[in-house]
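Assemble and predict.
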Amino acid sequence: MPTEGKAWKFGDGISTDHISSGRYFHLRSKLDELSKHTLEDARNDFAPNVQQGDFVVAGKNFGLGSSREHAPTVIKILGVGAVLAKSFARIFYRNAITIGLPVIICDTDAIKEGDVLELDLIAGKIQNKTQGTLIEFPALSEQMTAILDEGGLIPFIKKHGDLRF
Amino acid sequence: MGKTISEKIISDHAGSSVAAGETTIVRVDWAFTHDASGPLVLKQLKELGIEHVADPSKTIIFIDHAVPSPQKDLTNNQSLLRKFASQEGCHFCEAGTGICHQVMAERFASPGQIIVGTDSHTVMAGALGAFATGMGATDIAVSMALRKTWLRVPETYKIIVDGSLAEGVYSKDIILHLIGLLGADGATYKSLEFHGKAIEEMPMNERFVLSNMVVEGGAKAGLIPSDEITRSYLSSRGRDETFVPVTSDSDATFERVIEIDSSDLQPMIALPHAVDTVKPIDDIGEVKVDAVFIGSCTNARLEDLQIAAAILGGKKVAQGTRLLVTPASAEIYAKAFKNGTINTLIEAGAMITPSGCGMCFGALGGVPADGEVVLGTTNRNFQGRMGNPKAFTYLSSPAVAAATALTGRITHPKEVK
């Protein structure tokens, strides 16, 4: 089912400290509170204004740094439909799939702040409705698709009764 | 077809032969978490509907991020973990014991194992020849519950380091140089294997620095073949029997080979706010520093503190500069206390804190003021990393850190001899 939302642009090298800073460590057991500071050190207008279904659109190596699962979790809590980036850091990428947040590797240069995007995860297509353009992206690996399809690793394991592909 | 170290260890734990690019399910030897992610691990275990860990003897809980706890919410979380560890009968390393990666090396990690932890610097155990990698809380909850995880077998970059090291140059300078070469995403999803004469001759404490920081280039693991130096380290820790020789086959496939002549290196500095913005110390100009931090899982071992003490001994930290030292573990702290190292550092003007992650990640003491410059022996200098997005962090070896503490500006150790 395609989802629609607005693009929030970020640059290259957005770290897990930008996404969920260590100085809010004490809020980690209050994820809703923690999510109010999502990406604060990159753009402090993001968390207060992002709408359900909007997209985080970034450059290279999104999510580098720490293994804190809180980073994709707070993005998901804010209702972000997917993170689009030219590339992702490994742990962030895996964590996003694990918690059921779609992460898409594609060329994000042409997407502008505020563009309205329609994402079709299954078809591997993003319509830029503002610009009238189409971006295609490669499918995730078979195993990652299987996990994401169930909404994350925990629902996946619950459904199959075990971790097996 | 020969195998890399990653392919060998993962094949051993998958029960079938796998090669780079394949995805498989593996048995896990150690799964650990700490107070920064542990509460989320417990929440996810509950979500999973699994009440007990599969094997408490292979499960470890550390309290190392907020020690001593500055805030009741954090203390409550720590209590939760303490209670869980006690109920499950798993290993528990109390606040003050040390940083998880250092304690993993001291007590648990051995060659040929698969180790997963809720921390990106889990890769440090790769220096002992273990396939060790960081994951999120849910993945670790699953690893604890089922004693297995899924892995994509990484391609490997072979890093060959030959040459001697000039005076004042350490493995920190090699790894900073390498991260500068690779870029912060240059080794994403890859495993790095370190070879060459400089590695073969390198003591364990220096090897840990290399493996610890491979994640700053995006790597999934940083492996060093196990050898006599590994064996003697394990033996000194009472784990002699866990030694197994681990190395890659001579006909293994490496995606890339990078050769470094370490005799050309001078002390290297990573500039704010990226670990891959690396320059030789002579090329950075004058950089005044407000605080120096010798700590973290990267560079706060006994040898690091001794290097610092040798430079600072009988002298004083520059006026207007503060020096914080956080030994990586209680054991290191005690040894440094006993042999006079701590005394030397205190007399020079250092402030010593309990063992833990401390100033490195900005949740505890030592947070810099707006506009301040910090030089750390740590692994990351991202904006806001040390708790203030308006501060600037540079990274270096302990020797440069100590020399810098004396002058108040980033200084080559040879300048203060």
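The first helix of chain A runs from residue 16 to 19.
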